[in-house]
Amino acid sequence: MLGIARAALAQFEGVRSTEHLWSLVRTPAQVEKVLAVIEAHPGVVMFTLVDPALRTLLQEGCRRLQTPCVPLLDPVLSTLSRYLGVEAGSQPGRQHIMDREYFERIEAMNFVMNHDDGQSPEDLDRADIVLIGVSRTSKTPTCFYLANRGLRAANVAIVPGLPLPREIENVSKPLIVGLTRNAESLVEIRRNRLSMLNQDDETEYVDVGRVREEVTAARRLFTEKGWPVIDVTRRSIEETAAEILQLFQERIAG
Fold first, then answer.
1. Which of 41, 49, 60, 83 has the most crowded Cβ, counting Cβ within 10 A?
2. Tens of pLDDT along 52-110?
3. Reduced to 3 states, what is the DSSP secondary structure of residue 73?
4. Buried b (16+ CB within 10 A) or exposed e, 171-195
5. How far apart are CA 230 and CA 132, in angstroms?
6. What is the spatial order of strands in the sheet that 229-231 belongs to?
7. Domain architecture of the chain: domains with CATH
């Protein structure tokens, strides 16, 4: 709202203004306080109230004070209503619902970063989803995609010769999903990764025989634990995430 007011005032050369901003006006008592300030400091009132009773109270008060009162949202809502063919609602603060969703996504993003590749296993039970798989099975990017949907996702890598964090045995809240990929695809991705890092690519990390053993051992683990498995070999991140979301919804519904 301030942006609109300032943009309009900028068209009047030499005019200086004093701004008074009231946010989250939700009750008649708050409107009366606003009107008291307007009476003490007269000026053009611009508002975005949608509650009919509060709008009427403000407009009648401004009329009594002989102060111009401009409902900024009215022409926008009227145009949208005609275009969409539906009536606009009058729910106060509706735009802040999107704000809450935004902050939930930010919180989820922070959770992913703090729980990437097995970090902070002590609070894995706070996660909504935990992805487990061998190296380069798209665990991290899939977690970030899920976080963009507001879900707290963690991922844990299966490393040959090393046990999984013991906390995995005790989690009860998160959906745990195993991710896998065929060995040949893994080798290619891992070689590209090592090349980007200027590292030697003649290691067990990219030995196709060893990688097959990794994949087989991971699948055996998933079966033993009863975790659902998704083969990401020919799937995009979006497709993998969509299947995980379906599993998550089924778990909630079940």
1. 49
2. 888 889 999 999 999 999 888 878 877 777 777 766 665 555 555 456 777 788 899 99
3. helix
4. beebbbbbbbbebebbbebbeeebe
5. 10
6. 153-158, 129-134, 175-180, 229-231
7. 2-92 (no CATH), 97-253 (3.40.50)
